[in-house]
Hints:
The chain is mainly α and 129 residues long. Helix content is 43%, strand content 3%. A two-stranded antiparallel ribbon has the order 1-2. The longest helix has 22 residues. The mean pLDDT is 77. Keywords: Membrane, Transmembrane, Transmembrane helix.
Amino acid sequence: MRLRTDDDIYRARLLYLGPPGYTLPVHLPYGQYGAFAGLLALFMFIRWGITGDVELFPAIEISLALVATSLIFRYVDADRPATSVLRTLLTDWKHTRDAGHEQRIPAFTTRSIRLRPTLVESARPEERL
Length: 129
């Protein structure tokens, strides 16, 4: 009896397992590899713009790209693609308003409320005092 491999499951989840015959120690979706590469290039470009040089092994940029990728993919998954997360982010950013000048409604206590007896008619005669 031959057992089927679970490659179909990984293929459905769009995971890259590694080169043929070898597996990587972590299973990441394809999107995370692309986001990491893009963020790494962005951080390297920002550092080049600030300092004017590029290091041989950009350790700071790699760590920043790893952290940024993990933060992004806390919100992005198969149920919430990146486009819907960005759309929600932009919508919330546009429509969020500052507190500005708020006028609070004065709080009433039972001491400050007076009822005239003519307005309050009790339904039962035994409730009258």
